[in-house]
């Protein structure tokens, strides 16, 4: 099994179910909601808390192959739950951004896990509405 398949399975069946309940309420995690590109249904994924004012930053560990990135390509409208509150925004994929350099300025815990399990890092910026 290659690294991407392994880390995706671990996230889907172990990490995400455990953190989904707490994401958005504890400082380390947030919850990203995108619209399913095929189903049109809300899809929620725990992500590292990358809030900076009215901007939310995250690093997709599998780049353009991550399901939430594929959803963003189809519909850039997204929501993020941080601090127990949902915020609407518009997501932008930033392939020109240096994802590793950006991670150095983000909260440490999740960034290390993304670097370890990631195969193709991609920066995502979400411009949040007030």
Characterize the structure shown.
The chain is an alpha+beta fold and 130 residues long. The protein has a single domain (3-128), classed as Roll (Pnp Oxidase, Chain A), CATH 2.30.110.10. Helix content is 32%, strand content 35%. It is built from 4 helices and 7 strands, in the order αββββαββααβ. Strands 2-1-5-6-7-4-3 form a 7-stranded antiparallel sheet. The longest helix has 18 residues, at 3-20. The protein is globular and about 45 Å long. The N and C termini lie far apart (44 Å).
Tell me briefly what this model is.
With 130 residues, the protein is an alpha+beta fold. 32% of the residues lie in helices and 35% in strands.
Descriptive key words:
Pnp Oxidase, Chain A; 7-stranded antiparallel β-sheet; alpha+beta; single chain; 7 strands; 4 helices; about 130 residues; globular
Mean pLDDT: 84
Quaternary structure of the protein = single chain
Instruction: Give the number of helices.
Output: 4
Strand order across the biggest sheet?
2-1-5-6-7-4-3
Helix and strand arrangement:
Elements: H1 3-20, E1 29-35, E2 42-48, E3 51-52, E4 55-60, H2 67-74, E5 77-82, E6 85-94, H3 99-103, H4 108-117, E7 122-128
């Amino acid at each position: 099994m290659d690294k991407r398949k392994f880390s995706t399975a671990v996230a889907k069946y172990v990490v995400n179910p455990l953190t989904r309940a707490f994401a958005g309420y504890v400082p380390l995690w947030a919850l990203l909601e995108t619209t399913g590109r095929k189903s049109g249904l809300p899809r929620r994924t725990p992500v590292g808390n990358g809030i900076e004012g009215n901007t939310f930053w995250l690093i997709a560990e599998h780049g353009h192959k991550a399901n939430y990135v594929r959803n963003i390509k189809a519909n850039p409208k997204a929501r993020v739950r941080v601090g127990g509150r949902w915020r609407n925004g518009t997501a932008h994929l930033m392939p020109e951004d240096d994802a590793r350099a950006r991670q150095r300025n983000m909260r440490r815990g999740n960034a290390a896990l993304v670097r370890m399990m990631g195969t193709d890092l991609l920066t995502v910026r979400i411009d949040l509405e007030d």
